[in-house]
Fold this protein.
Amino acid sequence: MNICVMAGDGIGPEIVEQAVRVLRAPALGLTLSFTEALVGGAAYRAHGHPLPESTLSAAQASDAILFGAVGDFSLDTLPRELRPEQAILGLRKALNLFANFRPAMVYPELVDASSLKPEIVAGLDILIIRELTGDIYFGQPRGIRVRDDGVREGFDTMRYSEPEIERVAHVAFKAAKRRNNRLCSVDKANVLDTMQLWREVVISVSKQYPEVALSHQYVDNAAMQLLKNPKQFDVIVTGNMFGDILSDEASMLTGSIGMLPSASLNEHGFGLYEPIHGSAPDIAGKNIANPLATILSAAMMLRYTFANAAAADRIEAAVQMVLRQGVRTGDIAGPGVTAVGTRQMGDAVLAAL
Ligand code: IPM
Ligand code: MG
């Protein structure tokens, strides 16, 4: 099992280091090899491109990718195709990672870290499946142009083909079957034609999954329902843009965006595993970032790509044990609790393992 490690920018290297330590833990007894590759601002500085050819081929030669984060304010003035974010967008597209799993669960120990009332979030366990290679993120045409009347305008195109909607719908129905048989499809079918097609296609795919109860919500209502009564959801399936927004929102139900892992899969189970948070340049290099989302992403890798549920369970149990012991990084510490550093959190998970 060869893992391509892409630490990236900001806090990326610190959090990825802890996840690699966990994967290497003798207690897990895994035989893994690791290949490092540069992405994002780090790659731009070294090679003049956020996703160099060498990085893409290292990714293609690997069995799975462990990804940290990309993003660097000092490079935000570069042309779009050279900005660090293009690395992750380019990997998703080039490797056809269309199915993005973003679970949000509330650990009992962190109920009070959420900004919502404990009774609203206690026991929450939802899975957002975000389509990741289509939509307004990739639709053409796009650009900034000068109109005939001399006024500048920006434009992007929301686009989904029927096969793109079908394949992510199948992934979502199958995931719902492995959970509690409930799927909520989130769209904006009341306003957008693309989303009308989305709803029609999801309904037609649902005929093959009679055991799954399908519901639909408009995205604005879904954003509200996630705060009002998040436990009504089991699996949510939605497009790229809405999924980006709703998954950040859902992370706050759990207490911290520093806790949420993700898996981005193609149809063969090849995957890129990354925390859903960004590169957080403001706290980079200070040994204070929470590595748990990345460690939990490594667990997802073992579960989904390497079909090693036992090892994944053990990492997740170790994380839970550490939380039960009261070990906290700053983002989940709460008032009066002394926070540990990134590396110490990694030590604690290793000790628990
Ligand atoms: C995410 C991030 C990315 C996205 C950025 C970094 C391009 O916000 O993975 O949610 O918008 O998809
Ligand atoms: Mg996002």
In short: Residues 71, 85, 88-89, 244, 276, 278 surround 3-isopropylmalic acid (ligand 1) (CB under 6 Å). The chain has two domains: 1-98+266-353, 102-256.
